[in-house]
Design a protein that fits this description.
By secondary structure, this protein is of the alpha/beta class. The protein is built from ten helices and 15 strands. It has two domains: 141 residues, Quinone Oxidoreductase, Chain A, domain 1, CATH 3.90.180.10; 140 residues, NAD(P)-binding Rossmann-like Domain (Rossmann fold, 3-Layer(aba) Sandwich). Strands 3, 4, 5, 6, 7, 14 and 15 form a seven-stranded mixed beta sheet that branches. The chain has a six-stranded parallel beta sheet with strand order 10-9-8-11-12-13, with helices on both faces. It starts with a strand and ends with a strand.
């Protein structure tokens, strides 16, 4: 038997409970992982609370991320005892996921854990931090450099934003952090932000074009915030978008794209191919300061993850929540 969060929907009643399962209740897969740590992302918050129809199969263990040790494997790439990381691939949505002490998965979804990280550190990064690196790499491929000017990070105190600030400042960028939590200014500056602005400056409807300011943008918010970020991006600049904390809508115009040549990159972390994942994780291992990673990390237990899901949706969480599934 092993502990797990389990989401079910008996009748019209949605519920997520801490329970015990046995191996027979694990889904199909060719790798069984003894999970050490998982995490709570925004999508996990939606799945656990039922706020959005993230889960498409019941009953199901939520958790789009996990890190741990291979317990059994018939996949040619993985042997028992090896450390692995999982991000995405529909796990925690249509296939039972990482908020449990065991997970059975397809080996095609796994990557070897970089030697630089412990399982706890890997989950302090999680999908949020891995998505942040994908965004930074999108700006890099576009040719955005520190010499071109400031870079904006929205949703700055969240998981994506916190890691993005640390990565961009480490690369020499002057980072401007947008947040609804101005009392976290000290935290954001410790991560490397040069300036902190109130998200209210970006979250309301704005003009089709604003004064050019940003050489690049990492956005985890969407809606009016993303539109206003695009409107103030410099000629030929780039915006990497990976989230929807404010909303899925894009209530804007084509003006920044056809008048200033701004490029909007959609960044997907769920179905990214293995090579792209490994490159992102290797870059994280090389660039992410362990002290800054520790500063954004807060550890909780599996039972505490139930309340944390509502907190992350309410914007009450700073940085990254790491779930110790064995506590």
């Amino acid at each position: 038997m092993f502990k797990a969060l389990l989401v079910d929907k008996p009748g019209d009643r949605y519920q997520c409970t801490l329970t015990e399962l046995d191996d027979a209740q694990l889904p199909e897969g060719n790798v069984t992982v003894r999970v050490a740590y998982s995490t709570i992302n925004y999508k996990d918050g939606l799945a656990i609370t039922g706020r959005s129809p993230v889960i498409r199969k019941f009953p199901l263990v939520p958790g789009i991320d996990c890190a741990g040790t291979v317990e059994a494997s018939t996949h040619p790439d993985f042997k028992p005892g090896e450390s692995v990381v999982l991000n995405g691939w529909g796990v925690g949505e249509s296939h039972s996921g990482g908020l449990a002490q065991k997970a059975r998965l397809s080996g095609d979804w796994l990557i070897p854990m970089p030697a630089a990280f412990t399982p706890r550190q890997a989950m302090a990064i999680g999908t949020a931090g891995y998505a942040a690196m994908l965004c930074v790499q999108a700006l890099e491929r576009h040719g955005v450099t520190p010499a071109q000017g400031e870079v904006l990070v929205t949703g700055a105190s969240g998981g994506v934003g916190s890691v993005a600030i640390a990565l961009l400042s480490g690369r020499g960028f002057r980072v401007v952090a947008s947040t609804g939590k101005l009392d976290e200014t000290g935290y954001l500056k410790d991560l490397g932000a040069a300036e902190v602005i109130d998200r209210a400056l970006l979250s309301a409807p704005g003009k089709p074009l604003a004064r050019e300011r940003w050489a690049g943008v990492v956005d985890a918010v969407g809606s009016h915030t993303l539109v206003n970020a695009c409107a103030a991006t410099k000629y030929g600049g780039a915006v990497a978008a990976c989230g929807l904390a404010q909303g899925m809508d894009f209530p804007g115009t084509v003006a920044p794209f056809i008048l200033r040549g701004v490029t909007l990159y959609g960044v997907d972390s769920v179905m990214a191919p293995k090579g792209k994942r490994i490159a992102a994780w290797n870059a994280l291992a090389a660039e992410l300061d362990p002290l800054r990673l520790a500063a954004i990390t807060h550890e909780i237990t599996l039972a505490e993850a139930l309340a944390a899901a509502s907190d992350i949706l309410a914007g009450k969480v700073r940085g990254r929540l790491v779930v110790n599934v064995n506590k």
